[in-house]
Every structure is written in structure tokens, then in C-alpha cells.
């Protein structure tokens, strides 16, 4: 069933933290995978979920770094190697998860790169599209049987307000015929994340699997590592003295919408929607320039075409 793209009356909001957004929830026995759960909002996502009793597996490109960050987090947290730009690594990670668990309750596709210089993976695919979208597409496909087993699972795809920068160019997703622009590449990758959730929800609903996309908000994290200080000042993210814009969220606040989408009872029977500030987002409008969902994220025809292209590019046929 198509869920309306409109707020559901959540009691949480812009400044809610991940723990507040999960207040009173007991996740004992729930099994959750979080990609990139050892940096920025990923760490706070894992902390909140494990703190509520869930068993969490973190997919990490830098395992030793992840072990250091998550060493004192408490709860049941395991770390397995995962490089989303490497198809063999994705398959190995999925196999390792399946060797530990016979079902998966929640998959959080959190890991990302942002506004990076042009890189290409071993297949020649543009790095942001390959890592942020195609890697998670393949991972979700490989974990599908575990998600569908319980008949009541959720997939959360981390998108961004950066989706407003443009829809995916399905004729040239790898910037082979157009000049590379790091922000245009980021925008199409984050749009792809949301369109993936839109179409996955349509295919997954008969199997009890619902999908959501999330804009976590503006947060100062290692995601900004490819941006110079001058760029961040020009965009108003920091001032000349390096002070962070007061509108930015803390990492604890930035993780709130992710865990809300993954666990909130308000989303029972719903799916395919784009969420922000711990609620389903309203449509973008002229009086909300920094929020809301833009029309191309609700284009089911575009989502279906992106899905078909993703199958072709990854060689993974994913038709639940």
C-alpha cells in the first residue's frame, strides 16, 4: 500500500536524540546490521540500538578503527569487514552474517562518502554512486532471505537533503559523457538511496519487509573530510573561526531519525517514505528551502528504472 508522504504526528523532532527517539523500546532479541556504524552518526546509531538490547553487526571498511571506536559501547556488537565499493567484500560480509544469524530484523544502510574527488571502482563506476547506492543495493539483495524470513523487517536507507541537487542521470550515472561535479554526483547518489527505498518497499511489502529513507540533518562528522575549510565557510557550515553553524545537529541528534525509522510503532504498516526530524517529511516548498522531499523522490517510474539499471550494473538480479 502506498504510504502518503506526510507527517504522522511524531512526538519527536529536530533536536531529539537517538535515545529519546527510542524511549521505552526494548529491542532484546532483535538482530540489526548497520553499515559504517563506527563513525559520526553511525556510532550513535549503534550505541542507541545496542543500548536497547539489540544484537548489532557493524560492517566496517576499517575494522581496527571500528574496534577502537566501539570497544566501550556496551551491549552485543560485532564487527565484520565490509567494503561497499568491492562486490566480493559485500558477498563475503553477507555470507558471514548468514553464518551467524538465520534472520535479520533491521538493515540500516548508513555508510557513505560525500563530495569526493572523482574516483572509480574496479568496474569503472563513479565512486559516490558505487559506494552509496550500488554497494547497498547489492548488500540488501544478498541479505534479502534473512530479512524476509521473519516476515516483519525494516530497511533504512540514509539519504540526504542533498537529494535536491538532482535526480540520478540514468543515461550517464558514471560521468563518462559529462564533466564530473562532486556535488551533482552526491545529489544523484543520495536521490538513488531514497528511490531504492521507495521501490524496495513496493516489492518487499508482500514479504513483510518495509523500507524507508532518511535525511539525518546537518551534522559535523568525518563525512566532510573531502571539503576544505574555505568551502565549509562559504556554505555557512562554519564561520571564519571554525565555529559550527548553530543549526547543525549533534551526532546524537543526527542519529535520531535513523533509529526512529527503524523502530517507531508509528510506522507500522507504512513504508516507502522519506523521513526527517523523526517524522515522515512533508513535500518541499518555497517556504521550506532546507527541508522536505522533492518530487523526483516520489517518482515510482524513475525508481523502477533505477532498480533495473542497478541490477544491470551489479549483475545482481534482485526481485523479491
- Looking at the overall shape, the CATH architecture is 3-Layer(aba) Sandwich
Structural domains: how many: 1
Provide the structure class.
Answer: alpha/beta
Overall mean pLDDT? 92
Shape: globular
Distance between the termini: 16 Å
Helix share, percent: 25-40%
Q: Give me the count of strands.
A: 8
Could you say what the CATH topology is called?
Rossmann fold
User: Radius of gyration, rounded?
Assistant: 18 Å
* Poorly predicted parts: none
CATH class: Alpha Beta
Compressed to H and E, one letter per element, the order equals HEHEHEHEHHEHEHHHEEH
Fourth CATH level, the homologous superfamily: NAD(P)-binding Rossmann-like Domain
Number of helices: 11
Main sheet specs: 8 strands, mixed
Question: Largest sheet, order of strands side by side?
Answer: 3-2-1-4-5-6-7-8
Taken as a percent bin, the fraction of beta residues is: 5-15%
Task: Please tell me about this protein's structure.
There is one protein chain. With 320 residues, the protein is α/β, with parallel strands linked by helices. The chain has one domain: Rossmann fold (3-Layer(aba) Sandwich). It is built from eleven helices and eight strands. Strands 3-2-1-4-5-6-7-8 form an eight-stranded mixed β-sheet, sandwiched between helices. The protein is globular. The two termini are 16 Å apart.
